[in-house]
């Protein structure tokens, strides 16, 4: 009986936590001229463990449900415990009925200065500010979860977006950039404010329709799926009329432009005349890709 209890405790301890992310974390310090300094290697190791082992949500993830993401921190300067850096966060999710993964989030956050003492404990508290290092990563990780959920379920990302907003609110207490209204239209403050604003409800419709009605149905009927994707993208016309050149449109197309180019440059032909006109209007920075789309 005693051995059975020990075994039960072992299994509860070992399998009570389900890893939520498959995250690859890279700390690149080449621009400092001191990329071999041990502190950067320690930071990379600690962050890899922190991101992958932290319990971020209340969900239980099966191994195949873990979200794949890449986090690349480019350190540009260091002065003792103070680091100047930027961070790029990318995530993707599998497409139904295929081995293909579709990009969901691709953002480069230039406002990522932080303090770090080698081997310091990295702890995430969802209701409390710990450090700018923790807050920035936690914010983007919640955006990863939120947008991933939106691609499966209408308004499915709400719990994660609201947590990202809480992180913004309690991270305003220090003078790091990116957390406040005055930090501009492409800050973390602006990003989550836009996502949760009724003004940009079309963005959330796009996220769901593009993935569930479009890309997840490509294995069943490629042509119908392409038409659904084009229809989903048409919501950018309404969104652009309300708020031209929005940050959310940029975030979407930074993740999706290459995929959209590939979808409409191969396979069965669909009418893309209106689509190309729209894409050039709402995402002109990707015009070179739109030129490759076949009529």
Give the secondary structure arrangement, pairings included:
Blueprint: H1 2-15, E1 21-28, H2 38-53, E2 67-79, E3 82-94, E4 101-109, E5 114-115, H3 132-150, H4 158-170, H5 188-196, H6 201-214, H7 222-233, H8 235-242, H9 247-263, H10 273-282, H11 287-290
Parallel strand pairs: 1-2
Antiparallel strand pairs: 2-3, 3-4, 3-5
Helix pairs in contact: 3-4, 4-5, 6-7, 6-8
Would you kindly provide a written description of the structure presented here, covering whatever features stand out?
- The chain has helices spanning 2-15, 38-53, 132-150, 158-170, 188-196, 201-214, 222-233, 235-242, 247-263, 273-282, 287-290; strands spanning 21-28, 67-79, 82-94, 101-109, 114-115.
- The chain is of the alpha+beta class and 295 residues long.
- It is globular, with a radius of gyration of 21 Å.
Give me a quick take on this structure.
The chain has eleven helices and five strands. By secondary structure, the protein is an alpha+beta fold. Strand 2 and strand 3 form a beta hairpin.
Summary tags:
295 residues, 11 helices, single chain, 15% strand, alpha+beta, 2 domains, five-stranded mixed sheet
């Amino acid at each position: 009986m005693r051995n059975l209890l020990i075994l039960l405790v072992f299994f509860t301890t070992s399998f009570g936590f389900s890893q939520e992310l498959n995250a690859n974390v890279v700390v690149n310090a080449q621009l400092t001229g001191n990329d071999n300094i041990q502190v950067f290697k320690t930071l990379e190791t600690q962050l890899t463990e922190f991101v992958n082992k932290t319990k971020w949500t209340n969900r239980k993830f099966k191994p195949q449900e873990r979200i794949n993401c890449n986090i690349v921190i480019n350190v540009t300067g260091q002065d003792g415990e103070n680091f100047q850096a930027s961070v790029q966060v990318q995530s993707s999710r599998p497409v139904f009925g295929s081995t293909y993964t579709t990009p969901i989030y691709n953002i480069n956050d230039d406002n990522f200065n932080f303090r770090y003492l080698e081997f310091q404990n990295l702890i995430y508290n969802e209701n409390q500010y710990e450090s700018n290092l923790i807050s920035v990563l936690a914010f983007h990780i919640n955006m990863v979860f939120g947008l991933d959920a939106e691609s499966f379920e209408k308004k499915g990302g709400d719990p994660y977006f609201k947590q990202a907003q809480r992180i913004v609110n309690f991270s305003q207490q220090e003078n790091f950039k990116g957390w406040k209204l005055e930090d501009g239209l492409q800050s973390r403050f602006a990003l989550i404010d836009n996502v949760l604003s009724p003004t940009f409800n079309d963005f959330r419709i796009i996220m769901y329709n593009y993935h569930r009605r479009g890309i997840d149905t490509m294995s069943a009927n490629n042509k119908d799926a392409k038409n659904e994707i084009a229809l989903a993208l048409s919501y950018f016309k309404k969104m652009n009329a309300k708020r031209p050149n929005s940050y959310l449109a940029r975030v979407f197309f930074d993740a999706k432009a290459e995929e959209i180019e590939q979808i409409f440059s191969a396979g069965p032909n669909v009418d893309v005349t209106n689509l190309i006109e729209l894409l050039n209007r709402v995402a002109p920075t990707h015009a070179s890709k739109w030129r490759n789309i076949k009529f």
